[in-house]
Amino acid sequence: MGIIQQQTVKGSVYSYLGVFIGFFTTFLIMPHVLTPEQVGLTGILSSFSIMTAQFSILGFNATARIFPFFRNEKENHNGYLFLACAVAFVGFILFCIVAFLIKDQVVSQKGSENELFKDYYWCLIPLTFFTLFFNVFDLYARMLYDTTTGRVLNEFTKRIFILVTLLVASFKLLDFNQFMWIWLIANIIPTTIIAYRLYSRKQLVIRPNFHFLKRPIKSQLVHLCVFGILTGSAPYIIQNVDKFMVTESHGLNSTGVYQIAFNFAIIITLPARSLYSIAYTVISEAWKDNNLDSILSIYKKSCINQIISSLFLFMLIWINIDNIYKVLPPEYAEGRYVIFFIGLGNLIDSATGVNGVILSTSRYYKLDSFFYLVLAGVTIGANMIFIPIFGITGAAIASALTYAIFNLSRYLFILFVFKLQPFTVKTPVAILIGIASYYVVNFIPVMPNFIVDGFTRSILITILFGGAVYYLRLSEDINALIKEALSRFKSNRQ
Description:
Blueprint: H1 3-33, H2 36-56, H3 67-70, H4 80-107, H5 115-119, H6 124-143, H7 149-170, H8 176-200, H9 215-250, H10 252-265, H11 270-288, H12 292-318, H13 321-327, H14 336-351, H15 355-360, H16 365-390, H17 392-418, H18 426-442, H19 450-471, H20 476-493
């Protein structure tokens, strides 16, 4: 896949380094330094700021699909960054007004159990501002084919700062209030760094080009922003509303338990997230040239690659689920099946490849807005049904159900409208190999030492599943990566 494969691999390397840091932070440090309620506070603040930042951009991220028409390095891409920053600033002002008006309603959820949220509510203002402009600068960088900088900063650099802060707090050198201020700074740093990186490349030029904004372009920008508010915001509602509803019905303590399990399960999405970043730009260019063959090739490869990689990660986690919870304090045990269902939902989402990118960059992008709007309603409804019955596991079930419905709808639409079928006979083969590998390893008796047990199970499932995938040549890209890794291993031994 050329540029896609190169940047996906590069992005994945940094993402997995971030996963290692995140794993160490989330599972070995945070639950032992912070109470579940305090963990829940950091989780709800992060989720809230991510969602409000997405609303505040006022749908401008959807204009990325027409960035090829702005692209002109000599003209600083015709003022695209100026437009993005101007829209974002207006959106931020609107958010501040709304945040002031709804404060009492938001912090009064679950009464006294959310007093901690009330104390730190105003942290949402700087968090939203810097998250918003990080999104703006990252979007711009990705349009200029730099998909790794934002990922490194958000998934690696920020986690390093948070880890160091938690380590200091673990020695009782910080109280919780001091920890929260440094945690806030850690969330701000990525925005300043990505802005400086754009500046050092002479790409941070916030200068308008009103002469370029002819009536057709202005009209298209307005239409894209209107539908982008739905398309861009609805996914974040889908991804974050569960935490708000858990907080409302069960309090910050349960949110903390849910947050720890949720963070573990989203490891499954990492390969897909690296792929989506660059695929968006490439597929947008392909639509411009009406190159359906190129789109189908990317679609097919993305599906088989993501099925294999996401299924492997899902099995790796679930085969070690008992070992995982031996590391955590007992009060987090309720999150066991949250990992399963959130992981299953992410597996379904990853396995359908770049269907969302194809639809959102096509002439039917407005219909994608409709899909998201309907799904946001389904998500809220499913959470209202399942959380009272199954507690935090109910929120995870609702998430898995939502992803299944959403991706089936997208798949069928692309199949019938564009005649693009991404799945081949290799798809069920990969799934069957994964299931067989899991059950073979699951028959192994539990070992007394959970570290040895986890290491043994992980190695065996890697050999069984990875070996079968390689031998049957299910993915050209994955085979090439395995061959390269084996070649380097052999050369290092000589």
